[in-house]
C-alpha cells in the first residue's frame, strides 16, 4: 500500500473519546503514522511481528497491519482506548491474513517475551510536570524487546536518543523531523490547534 493511501485509511480512525492528561494521550497524526509505517515496510521491518507499545486507539498498530504486517500486538493500559482501537480495527476491514491483538498492560513493562520483533511507538513526550523523561522508560522497554524500532520524540531529543541507544549497543539508522498537530482537547490548551516539532527515529538494537 502506498503512503498516500495508507494516510487516507488512517484518517478514518477515531481518536480518544475522553483523553487522560496524565497519560499524555494525544493521537498520532495520520500523516506521521503513514510515513513511519511506510518506511518500516520499505526497510522490510514489517516482515517480523510488530509490537505497538502504548498503542492508544491503534493508529500505528493498524497502520502496520494495513501495510502488510501479518502479526501485530498493541499494548495499552487504558481499557477505553483499547475499546476504541477494536472499533477502529473493525471499521478498517483489515486484510484477511493480518492478525491484530490488543493486550492491556503497562507498555514500559510489556507482558511479552523478548523476541525478534519490530516495535512502533508514540511514547509520552514527558511534557507534563511530574512526567519528565517519560519516553526513556519506553525506550528501555523497547531495547529489551525489539530487533528494530520506530519511535516519535520531541524535537531536540536526538542527542539523548543516540546516547541511550549507544549505551545499549544499538544504532540510530534513520531520523526525520515531523510536524505533529495537536487539536485542543484539555482545559489548559489555549489554541484550537498547535503544531509540535517532533523527530522520528529508526533504531537497530
UniProtKB/TrEMBL annotation:
<dbReference type="InterPro" id="IPR029063">
    <property type="entry name" value="SAM-dependent_MTases_sf"/>
</dbReference>
<dbReference type="InterPro" id="IPR051720">
    <property type="entry name" value="rRNA_MeTrfase/Polyamine_Synth"/>
</dbReference>
<dbReference type="InterPro" id="IPR007848">
    <property type="entry name" value="Small_mtfrase_dom"/>
</dbReference>
<protein>
    <submittedName>
        <fullName>METTL5 family protein</fullName>
    </submittedName>
</protein>
<dbReference type="Pfam" id="PF05175">
    <property type="entry name" value="MTS"/>
</dbReference>
<feature type="domain" description="Methyltransferase small">
    <location>
        <begin position="39"/>
        <end position="140"/>
    </location>
</feature>
<dbReference type="GO" id="GO:0016740">
    <property type="term" value="F:transferase activity"/>
</dbReference>
Amino acid at each position: 500500500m502506498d503512503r498516500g493511501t495508507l494516510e487516507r485509511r488512517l484518517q478514518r480512525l477515531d481518536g480518544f473519546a475522553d483523553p487522560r492528561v496524565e497519560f499524555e494521550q494525544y493521537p498520532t497524526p495520520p500523516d506521521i503514522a503513514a510515513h513511519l509505517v511506510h518506511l518500516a515496510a520499505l526497510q522490510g521491518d514489517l516482515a517480523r511481528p510488530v509490537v505497538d507499545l502504548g498503542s492508544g486507539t491503534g493508529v500505528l498498530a493498524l497502520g502496520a497491519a494495513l501495510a502488510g504486517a501479518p502479526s501485530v500486538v498493541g499494548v495499552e493500559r487504558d481499557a477505553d482506548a483499547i475499546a476504541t482501537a477494536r472499533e477502529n480495527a473493525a471499521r478498517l476491514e483489515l486484510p484477511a491474513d493480518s492478525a491484530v491483538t490488543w493486550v492491556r498492560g503497562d507498555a514500559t513493562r510489556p507482558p511479552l517475551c523478548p523476541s525478534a520483533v519490530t516495535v512502533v511507538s508514540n511514547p509520552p513526550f514527558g511534557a507534563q510536570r511530574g512526567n519528565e523523561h517519560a519516553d526513556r522508560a519506553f525506550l528501555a522497554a523497547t531495547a529489551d524487546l525489539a530487533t528494530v524500532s520506530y519511535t516519535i520524540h520531541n524535537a531536540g531529543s536526538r542527542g539523548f536518543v543516540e546516547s541511550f541507544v549507544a549505551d545499549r549497543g544499538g544504532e540510530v539508522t534513520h531520523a526525520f523531523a515531523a510536524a505533529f498537530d495537536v487539536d485542543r482537547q484539555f482545559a489548559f490548551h489555549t489554541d484550537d490547534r498547535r503544531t509540535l516539532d517532533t523527530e522520528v527515529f529508526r533504531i537497530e538494537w
